[in-house]
Amino acid sequence: MSTAPIANIDMPDFLYLALLAGLAVALVAGPLGSFAVWRRMAYFGDTLAHSALLGITLGLLLEINLNLAVALGCLVLALILVGLQQQRYLATDTLLGILSHSTLALGLVCVSLFSESRVDLMAYLFGDILAVTPGETLGVWLVSLVVVATLVGFWRPLLSITVHEDLARIEGIPVDAVRTLLMLLMALVIAIAMKVVGVLLITALLIIPAAASRRLSHTPEQMAIIASLLGALAVCLGLGASYWWDSPAGPSIVLSATLLFSLTLLKRQGD
Amino acid sequence: MSLLINAEGISLSRRGRQILQQVDITLEAGKILTLIGPNGAGKTSLVRCLLGLTRPDTGHIRQTAGLRIGYMPQKIHLETSLPLTVSRFLALGGKPRLDLTEVAQMTGIDKLTGLPMQSLSGGETQRVLLARALLRDPQLLVLDEPVQGVDVSGQTALYRLIHEIRNRRGCGVLLVSHDLHLVMANSDTVVCLNQHVCCHGHPEQVTSDPAYLALFGDLPERDQQQIAIYTHHHDHQHDVHGKVIRPHVHGPHCEH
Fold first, then answer.
1. CB neighbours of A208 closer than 8 A, spacing ≥ 6?
2. A220–B88: do the CB atoms touch at under 8 Å?
3. CB contact under 8 A, B84 and A211
4. What does the pLDDT read at residue A232?
5. Is it the case that residue A9 has pLDDT exceeding 60?
6. Max mean pLDDT range (A21-25, A87-91, B106-110, B228-232)
């Protein structure tokens, strides 16, 4: 393994890997986070993320790949939500509130009951990007590229159902399938983002760069791309802060994104 | 005459409340059908059934295979977080089958295409929605309350436009309106709905009627020609819950 210095800064290997993994998540968080903002899915993302912990526990119990377990857990939760939405007495945010906190609580209980010795709870709650392995980094990049490619491929139908579902349906778009696809992509991204910022902060990584990008963009595509760039910048700043001041990496990344968002508030509003 | 949509015996209820009851309706190419009815009569529900957005509890709906529908919804809510210009919004409808510049001019939105959707007024948004429906060169044009909140001259302008489009493209038109008496003069059929079809018929040209002149006499003549009065011929009435009350027929045992 080489420790070639870049610009006279002697970065350890783990920081390179962390940076690589973080950039992969930032790349996909731009467009996906934009959809989360446009479709008001922030709370939905939170709920999925909270259920990820439960997925981890079940993955450990069943001895299957943890990322797969998390993605599957998120999917099951999304399906439960769709089922619950069929009853028309409680609003979606109430249902999400129930699911979100129930799954988080259940995950915490399961972690302590079944896998106390094997699970570093803090790593899952707040992320452990500095401990990411080369194999994991590769996996994060693969998932990120697959999700970005899918988003690009289905860009118009995704945008169309976001603007008006009835119009999209009449114009021949399979709305339910496209909506399910978006949930699936969200579940996949949560599985990889968990490594970077942890269960409790995933939504921040999706929402904040996209929100910061809003004032800087005039088209949906601009907003998605600028969000990716801002996310990447936040990852760099956060990891830098973590390296120099020894602050926790995940929360530092989120705070860097918040800082960037605050800066965009200074921009005079165009439209 | 070629059939676009034929619906028979459509019934729909939600939460134990009857919304549609045994509704038959037929939409034909080149014909304008105006659907009227009071608030809560089930107009939008019927339209949603016809469009395939809601599945009725009973009844059959037959759509011509591959029917291309242009739909103008009642209103549209756009998140301000989504940066979307009018031209991007129009492009979301897919590859246009008609010339964008021409449609934009026809609907009077040619000056708006660069603006964000969220900056448009209600009337402008409606014209953009109409343009998106027209760009598909629809075989059936469905307009859900297009004249809601539009003044009379805007209303007549829209009616004239719809009439012109029908004549030029030969498409069928389904027009929904909550105005029970003033309808588009060029409607081929008017259907009055209140859970079930109360009556149907043709609008009457009564532009010489003094009551009509009092209301619309100031309008230019070409505007006057766009609006007509529809006379209902119901054989029953509805109570406040929408239940049918048939006029009482005296029987041999009546003592009143």
1. A33, A234, A254, A257, A258, A260, A261
2. yes
3. no
4. 96
5. no
6. A21-25
**How many C-alpha atoms does A111 have within 13 Å on its Cβ side?**
19
Say which CATH superfamily domain B3-68+139-236 falls into. Answer: P-loop containing nucleotide triphosphate hydrolases (3.40.50.300)
* Cα separation, B165 vs B150, whole angstroms: 20
Asked if residue A64 lies in contact with residue A82, where contact means CB atoms within 8 angstroms, the answer is: no
Euclidean distance between CA atoms A173 and B97, whole angstroms = 17
For residues A170 and A161, the answer to whether their CB atoms sit within 8 Å is no
- Which residue carries 């609006």 as its tokens? B227
A38/B81 touch (CB, cutoff 8 Å), yes or no: yes
The Cα–Cα gap between B224 and B211 comes to 13
H/E run at residue B70: strand B69-72
The 3-state DSSP class for residue B140 equals strand
HSE-up (13 A, CA, CB side) for residue B97: 12
Query: Would you say A50 and A101 are in contact if contact means Cβ atoms under 8 Å apart?
Result: yes
| B33 has a pLDDT exceeding 60 | yes
Q: Collapse the DSSP code of B13 into the 3-class scheme (helix H, G, I; strand E, B; otherwise coil) and give the result.
A: strand
**pLDDT digit string, tens, across residues B141-172:** 999 888 776 777 778 888 888 888 899 889 99
Give B40's DSSP letter: T
- Beta strands B69-72 and B140-144 are parallel
Contact B180, B192 (CB under 8 A): yes
Pick from A117, A89, A101, A5: nearest CA to A53: A101
Which three-class secondary structure state does DSSP give residue A215? coil
Interchain contact A171–B (C-beta under 8 A): yes
pLDDT at B192 over 80: yes
A13-264: CATH architecture: Orthogonal Bundle (1.10)
Over range B198-227, report the average pLDDT: 63
Residue of B nearest to A157 (CA): B92
List the single residue in B92, B116, B119 with the smallest CB-CB distance to A163: B92
A contact test, residue of B45, B92, B113, B128 with most A CBs within 10 A: B92
B71: closest chain A residue by CA: A167
A212 CA: distance to closest CA in chain B (Å): 11
pLDDT (tens digit per residue) in A137-154: 898 899 999 999 999 999
Question: Is the model's pTM score more than 0.90?
Answer: no
Instruction: Tell me the domain boundaries of chain B.
Output: 3-68+139-236, 78-137
